[in-house]
Structure prediction request, 189 residues.
Amino acid sequence: MNKVLFLITIIFSISFSLYSKENNSDSIYQNEIKEFDKIINQINQDIKKEEKDIDFLKNSLINNEISASKLVVKLLNKDDGYFKITKVKITMNGNNILTKDRLGKKELTIFNDSSSPGLYTFNFDLYVEGAGYGIFTYMKSYKFRIKRTVKVKVHDIGKSKLKIIIYKKGEDSKHPENMLGIKIEKNRS
Prediction:
């Protein structure tokens, strides 16, 4: 009887051990499934957040609240040894965007912002005086006023650039006004 009880105990403990291992492996699989569910739920939340962001951007673009296009306008004095810009007045579509006396820089960024697509009209009113040193001090007595109107098209996507460049275009000591060159560069990137 002891042998039978012993055998029953061994069989029962082996069975219980096997049953326990099956349950244990089931619980491992259950844990892995729970982890996958957590990951999938997080991915779904991320997707919903991205969809909301995309909808917001789409609606903002449609309503012209933001733009995928940008406009950059600069004024550059390439030869500040010959010419000094003493005053600048610039309008964009009839609205004053810059009035400044005594520019201390060779290059001035006038406008650098996202813009709605379309045609923009810039009016530049620049006051320039001669600059010089040594034998060229006579240039200081010359004053020029430059008025230019420039139209720039801003495209749906990309950057439109406008650069107004003042430079010395030649040597004409009898007519210094002929030395002043104005170049307008427009490009798109």
Observations:
- The CA atoms of residues 39 and 177 lie 73 Å apart.
- Helices lie at 2-62.
- The chain has two domains: 1-66, 69-188.
- The chain is about 30% helix and 40% strand.
